[in-house]
Amino acid sequence: MRIAFWSEQRGAGTSFNLAVTACAAVCLHPLSVAVVSGGYHDGELEQKFFGKAPNNMIGYRQEAMLVAEYGGEAATWAKYGQETMLMADTQKYLVTSGLDCLLRKERPEELTETVVKANMRQVVKDRMYCLPTSARQEHEWWHRDCQFKRMNRVMAAVESYFDVVFIDCGSRRDDYAKKVFREADVCVLNMNQDAEVIGKFYRNPPEYKGKVFFLLGKYFEDALYNRQDLQRIYRMEERRLGAIPYNPQLHAAEQVGRIGQGIHHYMGRNGEGQGMGFEKELVRTTNLILKLAGLAS
After folding, report:
1. What are 160-172's pLDDT values in tens digits?
2. Is the residue at 72 inside a domain?
3. CATH number assigned to the domain comprising residue 232
4. What tens digit of pLDDT does each residue of 223-242 get?
5. Which of 185, 189, 190 is nearest to 210 (CA)?
6. HSE (CB half, 13 Å, CA atoms) of 227?
7. Predicted structure pTM score
8. Do 130 and 49 form a contact (C-beta atoms < 8 A)?
């Protein structure tokens, strides 16, 4: 099951909305969840959970990429599906992990559950994983790279080992992101609290395989158009429109890579405390998306 998040406009908070929804899904239901970027070299989603890179070489994937002398360690890394590549300038070996490593697997049978999960980072122990993106820079032709053509195989393997895969397409317009969103089982269209955005969608509806869900990010109940107003104006089904209220504390947690802990703090309070409105809307939105995907009753 694939649920893709995308927005026609920048600044709609697509990666943030996906991160909090995926975390809420794990808190609310006994599901195994994978979160994956819809880009080749886009670490924005990963930063929501683990923070920004301390430097350009190791980056925020310090658990996944190591530099070591050639020797017995390579065999240990290989055991977990990681690979070594000789770096000509240093005569040392770079241990690749994450998406880079999985794309280097030449045969589908090499993408076992052990290998796939060893190349991901745990957000919630044994239940939620994030796939690190490539360390290689994107170029205009990146999606036509012979190695990247194995991405469909990698995605199929990830999907087979989890109940649901959340894919962050941001506001990207490259061929791969369009393909991911077009073929997803559920398409979550992220937007700002603006009636015109929904109107534009209805005037020029895109063709998607999956069911479409509208998600308002940085939502304010007392804005000019709230959720009820938009449902009335466009005669939208109540179950197809959700909202993620603006939450300054959670956005602060996002900046330091602690969004998972932030969501855990707000969930399970039974509507009590300062975050009551945020929790209520997040629970409603998450459950509606999962019901649309057939993952919740």
Report:
1. 999 999 999 999 8
2. no
3. 3.40.50.300
4. 888 888 888 888 888 999 99
5. 185
6. 20
7. 0.84
8. yes
